What we know:
heterodimer; A: mainly alpha; B: Rossmann fold; elongated; Polyketide antibiotic transporter (chain A); membrane (chain A)
Amino acid sequence: MIAITAPARPERVLRGLAVRQVRRAALVVTTVCAGMSALVVVGYQSEALDPAALAALARNPAIRTLFGEPVALDQAGGFTVWRTGTVLAVLLGVWAMLAATRITRGEEDAGRWSLLLSGGTTLAVAVRQHLGVLAVVPVLAGAATAAAMIASEADITGSVLHGIGLAAVGIFFVALGGVSAQMFSSRSAANGAAAAALVGGLLARMVGDGMPALAWLRWLSPFGLMALTRPFDTNRGLPVAVLACAALLLLALAGGLAAWRDVGAGILVTADSRPARTALLGSVPAFAVRRTLRPLAAWSAGIGAYFLLPGLIARSMTEFLTDNPQFAAMAAQAGFPALGTVEGYAATLFALLAVPVGVFVAVRLAAVAADENARRLTLLLAAPVTRLRLLAAEVAVAGCAALVLITVAGLAMWAGTATVHAGLGMGDAIAGAWNVVPIVVLCLGAAVLALGWRPRTVAAVGALPAVGGFMWQVIADSVDAPSWVRALSPFAHLAAVPATAPDWPAASVMAGIAAAGAVAGTIGYRRRDLSA
Amino acid sequence: MGVSALRTENLSKRYGRLLALDNLSLDVAAGEVFGFLGPNGAGKSTTIRLLLGLARPTAGRARIFDTDAADVATTHRKLAYVPADVALWPRMTGAEVLDLLARVGPGTDTAYRDELIQRFALDVSKPAGTYSTGNRQKVALIAAFATRAPLLVLDEPTSGLDPLMELQFRQAVGVARDNGQTVFLSSHQLAEVEAVCDRVGILRAGELVEVASVAQLRRLHHTEVAATFTGTPPDLTGVLGVDGLHNDGVATVRFTLNGSPTAALRALADADVATIVVREQSLEEIFLAYYGQNAR
């Protein structure tokens, strides 16, 4: 007797496949969103706020630009939204976008969908089912956040609205990643375009919050729309409804575009043939530079724009805090001490620079792991090129590119402050930016360690010192954790350069830890079997 | 015996509980075209990864021109490699990939490379992302043959090529042989191996079961004989070397012959033979005989 497995419904199979690819990361993202919100609600210490000072705070364009419009700070929930809302929305958005391109375009790029699509399913169905499954994750993250906040005794309506806002932002970026994956024929190009849209959305929120004349810009940004709901204050439903509609339209668009194109192709057609560009092909380091230039240009543009804006508002910000010492103290509780001088302000903002630059180096080394895994490195490794030389070239190029990014951020901040005559010297700006080098080096060391022993985890492990360390510090500051808990984050060991001198001993310790990681990783990389 | 182009001594590789390669000892002389046969999963690619230093042996040694395979800075100056599954950076054109490989590789004859591009009819101005499997394979083949490296390690290099390109491949192997280059060819295309290889090694379940020249392999194996007779066929039962005897109808006898045919021919000569067909087995039949029952 011949037994034939009854064909399951293809949609079900596709959903199962998508779930398998995102479930672990989905759990992490949901836990971080809910956990961080609950911790901040619990750790909130209410202090009597002077209504006049509160009004001044809400009016100040610099405060609004950087942290969003401060509303309902007199409640634990309101404070939590102000403190964590943007961070969590960016985290969820970035993850959602990257996951969307990974499980659709990434799988298609790797050729795994060819087999899948030879069965009883179409490209459009596959894309819709994958994005549909992924869109559930932000809903879970939002629901868990709202539930955690309510359980921590925050107001129910505000918590629910905040959760819905987070979910809507997440779904929006799932859809954006999905559309981008249809437009471009490679995962990296799709990621680049979607990331540009995300940074654009963030900048639109900042400018819209900071300048009343451009307040309408917030209606064009998912982060702006989320802020416009004003949870725990006026609790408006319209902005989040607009955001949810936009997200659903984009989702539908992604499915529609998928039906329109060929498997393996993008809506935007790339040039079919072109003359060879042979610059930077002469050696392994040169080739590493060649592959880094394009991402470096994109990251420089994003980071440059992001740090120009705080420069432009530096004066307004510092003057406000000098006039309102109550808020200087409050900012200190929120992890932003010494904002009253332009140097202190710059130092505080430059510390944030470690996050994107740390992610940058992690992503660059993850690209090496991906090249190895996809067997693109095989032909290079069959040439007289030792693993050590290849790794050294990649690490050196990623490190130098990170220094370029850091310098760009310093120059952008300086240019902004110089425009408003805020009195920050160019040397001080550069020194402040370079102060994050130890954390970036830690990321690089962690990424090399992962590449040597667990190549699939390079991006996550490499980004951990920067992203994990930053979140750790935010939580520790918000709940007023004991100093040894704070000290676990590398951010706790950054001096406020240029306001103070660099903490050389701490920098040396971090460099030493990074070097140990890099050495251990190199040993593993030389010893293990390459998947080539 | 001259210099070994590649040599393995008791080479073993274990992946967890799977013994992918068991105690392989192999010696390929410089200038030889060596065919490396075996079904999927027999350990061919594992052997090649060990020879290239991409994977580390669990036990034993692999040497390229008497240098340990782990010393890739030295060994890779003397070899060029074509992987079974060629992956290229999708945004780089074929010309750019060839340029990169020539500049980091062991030295390239650019005039011969241009000739190979023509012969393999590869459009090098297209981005690699638009290439088919066969075209990606052509890029790696052109890069490897153009190096004139003393050892070419080719892992199923023609699996994606059409018959015309397959012919070009055989010619390129011929040119390499004339230049005194050693070719280590892992392949499933038995006709190709038969056409170009001097010697063949057969791998089964991680173990080397046979190393011989193609002619020897055939001699080692039986020859099929079919004879028809005008009168009564002779009784060949018990004749030395005769095996698998059976009668087709009244006047036809089929059998296989192992070793010397003298006894069988003598027996046949006594009868009135009308026709006789003697056929050597193809490499494919030998290969299938090896794996027919106990395949992996």
